[in-house]
Specification:
Layout lengths: L4 E4 L10 H7 L5 H4 L2 H21 L6 H15 L6 H11 L8 H10 L3 E6 L3 H11 L7 E4 L10 H11 L6 E5 L2 H10 L2 E5 L15 E3 L5 H7 L1
Parallel strand pairs: 1-2, 1-4, 2-3, 4-5, 5-6
């Protein structure tokens, strides 16, 4: 068995980034937000990612919590909701309690039972990641949670991917790297990981110099894939 560790991106891979907006929209008295929550969720996520890339290339790093707030502020203004301070605070609070995708707990349990090391490699700020891990109830099946805060630059900088080898004492070829972000899965492949793109939305492959070796619709078969490599 070549693979020794299965490493996951957090947001959008293990944790549903749309959950905060979806749950807020279902709360009483949020009729205006209920009509646009999907747009806000999509805009929020897109701006969050764009700001990480722009800060990385400009050498203007900050913590992911600030980027998350900046992205939300843009998204709320784009939908005419910038004056709703209570909604903003509610959405930010819910981001600390993001739901895991349904298959995540059993998938991680299966990996641990099969003897694989497991971990998260995320742009997320440690405090945010701790909240999501606790809310999802998966702390007991993760060996570590690695944050870009330790290297001061966001993905896809190589310094981020290097954290895995430094922590687990393994080579890139011994890592199964799993991300729902196509660009992240591509860069992981370029770094030398066995890379998996979890393409839940059926999107086209990103046009980058590298492509992930595997494309899946969800995380259910990750344990079987890891054992087959």
């Amino acid at each position: 068995m070549l693979i020794k560790a299965c490493i996951f991106d957090a947001y959008g891979t293990l944790f549903d980034v749309a959950a905060a907006a979806r749950e807020a929209a279902a709360e009483p008295g949020r009729d205006a937000f209920a009509g646009v929550w999907q747009k806000v969720a999509n805009d929020w996520r897109l701006k969050q990612l764009q700001y990480t890339w722009l800060r990385a290339v400009a050498d203007a790093h900050t913590n992911f919590w600030e980027v998350t707030q900046n992205g939300l502020d843009w998204a709320l203004e784009a939908s005419g909701l910038q004056a709703d301070a209570e909604l903003r605070e509610r959405l930010l609070a819910l981001y600390f309690e993001l739901s895991a995708y349904p298959e995540v707990p059993k998938m991680l349990e299966a990996l641990k039972a099969d003897g694989f090391a497991t971990g998260i490699l995320s742009n997320g700020e440690p405090r945010m990641l701790a909240g999501a891990v606790e809310s999802a109830g998966v702390a007991g099946v993760l060996d570590d949670v690695l944050s870009v805060q330790d290297v001061g630059v966001f993905k896809p900088h190589a310094k981020v991917y290097e954290l895995v080898g430094e922590r687990f004492g393994i080579t890139p070829e011994e890592v199964l790297f799993v991300s729902s972000n196509g660009w992240d899965a591509c860069h992981g492949a370029g770094f030398g990981f066995h890379s998996v793109w979890v393409n839940r939305a059926g999107e086209p492959m990103d046009r980058l110099p590298w492509t992930p070796a595997h494309v899946l619709g969800d995380l259910t078969t990750i344990p079987e894939l890891a054992k087959s490599l």
